Amino acid sequence: MLSGIGYWIKMATGGDNIVSTFLAAAGGSLLDNMALLFAVGIALGMAQKSDGTSALAGLVSWLVVTTLLKPETVLLFTGVDDVNEVDPAFLKVQNVFVGIMCGLIGAYCYNKFKDTKLPDALSFFSGKRSVAIVTAGVSLVLAIVLFFVWPWVYGGLVGFGEWIVTLGAFGTGIYGFLNRLLIPVGLHHALNSVFWFDVAGINDLNNFLAGEGTYGVTGQYMTGFFPIMMFGLPGAALAMYLTAKTTRKRLAYGILFSGAIASFFVGVTEPLEFAFMFLAPVLYLVHAVFTGISMAISQILPVRMGFGFSGGFIDLVLGWANPMAQNPWLIPVMGVFWFFLYFVVFWFFLYFVVF
Questions:
Q1: Is residue 306 within 8 Å of residue 322, measured between CB atoms?
Q2: In degrees rounded to 5, what are phi and psi of residue 217?
């Protein structure tokens, strides 16, 4: 949001000024540390209780892993003479993918060891005080494993990203389909890191927000989400409400209306998606296919738009003036089509198939 407001001011005043520069730098301070935010945020979010100890554990894991695997440290491990001779994979170890793993370790150690009881002599380290210590130990093991495995993982991620790029719009559609398909298990964040951040050299999200990408290319791995999140899923919510049993309509209204608002304005889709993904998995598969098609169509038209948070109305408005934005006016036009398509398909399945 800060970056978007900065671009609006820059466009309105005809160039860089102290206010736009200040806001862009403030937004960049968060975007540049996205991996660290993932490590801390996931550790806190996946903990059984919202406790700062779990966030601290995520931070500890991140610091241990990234310090042990930074090029300067790897140089000492391998005995090479120049840091430039270190495997290039270790130049990219501070990424969201690794941040996710560190966050999961922090959450696991918190959940597992927060109630640990030690002998009286070590009682000071009992309970929550043991979490950070155990996390550091587990992270040492992760660092050792990644020292041998990360170059292969990194090579695989880069190869996958390069393969998707060569497939053009079809590849973008595959990414969109897999993005939605992985949401139930939370692995869509790992997939997103390949295309949105600088894991495989694509860096779509950061390039768009910085306005430093390639016009007509940057944003292609985000654009297709806008019509689905702002219009398609609210259309599905309307269909689910209209087909709900009369005795359940009031409950359905509360869930679906709030979910539709969240999806439209800020692109938070999970409240709606989790409302039907397990009850009607066929519909969720249809949703994943539609997302892939929307991503492909957006690339073909062409339309380019990006976001700092998700594909909602707020990010659309803030990104409208971004120099990387291309034909943003087509997004609402596409959205109307997806609204009616989602509504008709969901209504048909819910009325004639599910019940």
A1: yes
A2: -120, -55
| Neighbour tally for 205: CB within 10 Å | 26
Residue ranges per domain, the chain? 33-166, 169-355
DSSP 240-271: HHHTS-GGGHHHHHHHHHHHHHHHHHH---HH
**What torsion do the CA atoms of 222, 20, 38, 137 make, to the nearest 10 degrees?**
140
The Cα–Cα gap between 300 and 315 comes to 22
Residue 327, Ramachandran bin (φ over 0: left; ψ between -120 and 50: alpha; else beta):
left
Cβ atoms of 157 and 82 within 8 Å: the answer is no
Cβ neighbours, 10 Å, residue 2: 18
pLDDT in the model for residue 74:
87
Closest-CA residue to 193 (of 93, 267, 284): 93
Question: Which tokens in the block code for residue 307?
Answer: 């976001």
> What pTM does this model have?
0.72
Measure CA of the first residue to CA of the last residue in the chain; give whole Å: 43
Q: Which of 295, 332, 94, 266 is CA-nearest to residue 181? A: 295
Q: Which residues pair with 304 in a beta bridge?
A: 326
DSSP assignment string, 197-231:
STTSS--HHHHHHHT-S-TTTTTTTTTTHHHIIII
**Does 15 or 279 have the greater pLDDT score?**
279
